[in-house]
# Entry
Amino acid sequence: MAHFVALAIAWALIGASSHAQQKSPTEYEIKAAYLYNFGKFVEWPAKVAALGDSFSICVLGQDPFGASLDTTIAAESIKGKSVLVKRILRPQDAVSCHILFISSSEESRLKEILAALDRTSVLTVSDMPQFTRRGGIIQFVVEANRVRFEVNLTSAERSGLTLSSQLLKVANSVRRSSQPGG
# Structure
């Protein structure tokens, strides 16, 4: 199954980079592909899964993706729902998001943002340092010029989210932490 996850991620990367015409994908093109694929390997509570006819991936704060997130997501679907990209300004607006990428521009407000999302079923993702240690669910890390990710399983469980074992197998590290928003 880990091979399946790797293939799914590779497929997304190929799709994300096809517009780049032979150049290597950028860091944020790879992160955009990961965001899309995270949606395939996370289970949301039934009440959230039943809401609406779209699957929302949101960005809070300064958008580091530019057009790459929209390009990666264009015409895609997750769990039978069309995927929408939203840029939001307030953490309260994130309650309608399935996945929320919290920009590093929001680092000084992280505790407030995570508190506003406490016990909501939003998959929080960021590339800011110490994100999973501070209560976020998935943190992008770059090691040896490769984009990887860490998972805080306690934060995922607190949010009512179930991360597939296939996703956890390809994570760089999986931790349990009881410190929300620290």
About this structure: Residues 1-7, 10-14, 16-20 have pLDDT under 50 and may be disordered. The first helix runs from residue 2 to 17. The first strand starts at residue 42 and ends at 43. The CA atoms of residues 137 and 156 lie 6 Å apart.
